[in-house]
Every structure is written in C-alpha cells, then in structure tokens.
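Dissemination and training. As part of the outreach component of the grant, students in the summer workshop were shown how a complex can be specified as a set of sequence lines and then modelled as a single object. The example used during the hands-on session is reproduced here so that future cohorts can follow it. Participants entered these lines:
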Amino acid sequence: MTAEALAGSKASGVTSGGVPAGGLGRWLVRGALALLVLVWTLPTIGLLVSSFRPQQAVQTSGWWTQITSPLEWTFDSYTTVLDGGMGTAFVNSLAVSIPSTVIPILAAAFAAYAFAWMEFRGREVLFVVFVGLLVVPLQVALTPILRLYSSLGITGEFLAVWLAHTAFGMPLAVYIFRNYIGSLPREVIESAKVDGAGHFQIFWRLIIPLSVPALAAYAIFQFLWVWNDLLVAIVFLGGNREVAVVTQALQNLLGSQGQAWHLLTAGAFITMVVPLIVFFSLQRFFVRGLTAGSVKG
Amino acid sequence: MKLVTALVAIVVGVGGIVVLFWALNAAVDRLLPERWRDKARPWVFIGPAVLIVGIYLLYPAVDTIRRSFMDARSENFVGLDNFDWLATDSSVREIMVNNLLWILVVPAVSVAVGLAVAVLADKLTARWENAAKSLIFLPMAISFVGASTIWGFIYAWRAEGQPQIGLLNAIWVKLGGEPIAWLNQEAYNDFLLMVIMIWLQAGFAMVLLSAAIKNVPEDTIEAARIDGATEIQIFWRVVVPQIRSSIVVVGTTILILVLKVFDIILVTTGGDFGTDVVANRFITELFINRHAGRATALVVFLIVVTIPFMIVNIRRFRAQEAER
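and obtained this result:
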C-alpha cells in the first residue's frame, strides 16, 4: 500500500482501523473495550490504593473503603522500601536485564535466519530439538549448571546470569523468529543475492530491519521475564548483596521485616516502572505496514 | 561508581555478542578455502545458539531422561518403576486432569482476550488504542510477588461478621451470601487460579496479535469492504486467515508457559485443595520428597505431552517452505 492511498483513506473519514466513523458499532466497540479494560485494571488499582495505606488498615479493611476515608493516605510503605537499598538493586537489574535481552535476541535471530534460509545438514533435526526444548522446565538445569559454574568460578558474576537467561530464552526466541523470518518473501532475499550480497550482509541490512516488529515484541517479553525473575537470580547470583537485583532486594526486605504484605504493594509498584518504560518505548515499532510496506512495495 | 561498573558490564555484554558474530564470519571469509565457506557459514549463524542451548538445556534434559529410570537418589536403575507410579498413583491422576484443564482453558481464553483487545483497539484513534493496550499489558510488568499480592486482595477470606478485605467476598456478602474461602473450593478453585494466569498472559497475546493484525495489508481489507462484506465477515474471512500463523505461535507459547506454571499454585494454595499441577508436583518431589526419579519422570511426561504440538509446528514450517 502506498503512502498516498493511506493518506487518502484517512482523509475520507476512516479511522486507523478502517471502520467508518460514527454509528452504533463504534459505541459497541468502545463499550466492550472499556469493560475489558476495567476488569483487567481493577486488581492493579487495588494494589495501588493499598500501597498508600497504613499497615494496620491494609490488614483489617478492604482497599475500596480507602476512597471514603481519605485521611489515611501515607507514603510510609514507599519510604521503607526505598530505604532498603533499592537504588543499587535497580542498577544491578539493568546490568542483568539489558545484556540478557540483547544476547539471546541476536543469537536467536542469526539461528532463525539459518533455519529459514540456509541449507545445511541436520537442519530439521536441530530445529526439532529446539522446539522440543521449549518445554523443558528450567529447574532441571539449575543443579548441573551450578556445578559447572563453581568449577569455572563465575557464580555471582553478571556473566553467569546473562548466559543462563540467554539459554532459557533461546528456544522460544528461535521459535518465534523462525516463524517470522521464514514468512518473509523469497524474492527479497533472492534479489539481494543477485546483487551480490552474502548471507551476512543480507542478515544485517535486510532481515534485521524487516524483523523489527518481531524483535521488539520479543525484546519486551524477554526483558520483562528477566526483570521479574527471582529464581535464576537467587541461584546464580547467590547471596552477594553487591550484585542483588530488585526482586532479590524485595525479598530481602520481606525477610528482615517479617510478613510485610504492605511493603510488597509499594515494592511491586517501584519495580514496575522500568518494564513500563520499556513497553512504551518499544510499542511504537508496532506500526501498520512497517514490514508490509517495504516488502510488498 | 556502581553506575559505571554496570554501564561497562552492559557495553561488554551487548558488544561482546556483536563482536563474536562478526569475528566468526570474518574468520570464515579469511581463513577457509572458498569451497568450504558455504558449508561453514550456517554453523557461524547457528553455532552460538546451538552451543549455549546444548549446555544449558539439552544436556540437563538428556540427564533428566536418564534419571527418570533411576531411583530416588539417582543411584540405581529401576526400569519403568517411576512411570508405573506416574500411571497408577491417584494423586498424580488428579494433577494430570488439572493440567489438562489448564491446557484447554488458559491458552484459548488468553488468545481470545488478546485478539479481542487487539482488534477492538485497532478501531480507535492511536491515542485511545495505546491507552487501552497499555492497561491490558500492565499485569505483565508486575513481578510474581506483586501479582500474588494483588490476587490476595481479590480472593481473601475473613470469618463472617468481620469486614471482608477481599473484593470478591465483599461483593458476595453485600449480595447476601456467606463469606466463601474461594481457593479452598475444589469444584472451581482451579478456574480461579487460571484467571490469574490469563490476567497475566492476555497482554502477551495482545501485543503479538496486534502486531500481526497491523501487518495485514490494508488493500485486502479494503477489497472485501468494497465487495460489501460486514466488519465481522472481514474479521473472520480476511483478517483471521492472514494472522493464523501468529495465532498458532501465541497459542503454543502460552501452552508452554502453562505446562511450566508452578509459581501461581505454589504461592496461592501450595497445591492443596486439589489444585496441584505437574510442574509444581515436580518441585515437591525434587525438593521436599527428595525423589529425583519421580520428579524427572514428571518432566519426561511434560515433554511427551508436547509431541503433538511439535508435529503441528514442524508440519507448518514445512508447508511454509514449500509455499515460497
């Protein structure tokens, strides 16, 4: 679809989704969506309200009663959580999460391209193995890998966690990218080959730009999984407070203060900030025609 | 200081992987004779992924299969004893039924909600679309500890007469009912736990399906509209067929997450009241009952369950290759 045609359909009063403006249908769409969004958001609103309530109130009355007694608002939970060493943990979480997102995406994209567009022996068998490994729970890997790490002496290093997250995210990334990269039209790759480009150039100059929506989508999820992970961090970073990530900091906070559910509410909100920033900054890549336009001309 | 160390770590990690691929490719070009290059290059592309998955997943998986034929401490071979236990134990039968319910309900409902939001939001202006999608996505940003706290505020139970702090019971009591300990009700507590998973995963389905819908060429929709198709017909006959492969991918991904789900159960009911599932039982067998043989047999069972889905996916990939 050309830019002119797109501009034309906009000008004739058609919304981005292509539905004619006005009418009952539009209100049905809005109503259904509003209901879904309300149901989905209500639990989180409960958490948000609770995070501003005193400990006593959280445990004795429903969060919705807060709205009728506005005197009880407090920042206590937030100050307690922030004083508990969340700053360092934030930096550590970034140092863990960013490479743990970029490394598997790049390695998986290369592998997916090879599975989709290169000929080599054992291609199908290897791919079956990758898909099969999707279901292996990462718990089975913890003990053998921990043994390997202690013989290499890298437990408690960022590298240990990067590689673990890379491996655990890899089968899904290969699976999703293989699906996406494999559906790109053959002509695009063939014509680049005719122009004398090798696989390496085709990958960087064509495949990566064309795959941005899939890469961005996967990046969001891999980042979220790593950011919110507690299990891998506990096992491979260990008890070293210098490198503890936010989920560990949150857990330590709980450990030192007993059953402090009211602190969890504030902590959950503080740790949510970064994933939301990632989501909003990557969301703009899901634009209509980003790939269709360049492929289909 | 801390910030600098972290920054260096990020640059080293991200730069390292780029340099690795570049160096491997350059090595193939410079060091190998021409006739070997085409044979070696696929292994440059695939090598790092294969190596890391081999060490971190394939080796432990093979080891798991080996140990599923051994005793509690993985010392002696016991033949099929663990699988015999798997097939005959009544508590295992119960968790398998639960897992089956999870497999049937969660991927389907998550995909349906995700697709509904993606399609409906696509009809709004960009600003409202982003607002609606962000709110559905919100649960994905919450750590598991946070999610369990949130649902605690929904399902909480207090004895009759006391103020209810759980939303569900507050509504129920207001309607004249007696407070119910929701998560103890064996008839439907599985579904209440599934709601948590669906709440967490619908955002995932929505993001990927929304991206797919936006890649459906506008002219195919426009052509159908000119032919007089209604919006509902356009959705089922034009949009859905074109995003089918995305639906399969999203459904499969959620299915796999469902097979591995243990933390929701561990934190809420601990597997009591008939809510246990295979992945949680694996943790119980391995770390509490200390029976490595039975634990690994459960994982082998999970792997076997997914074979049909693997076949479907591989067929689809073959069809994709034949098509182009």
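Chain B touches chain A through 117 residues (CB under 8 Å). Students were then asked to discuss how this feature might be tested experimentally.
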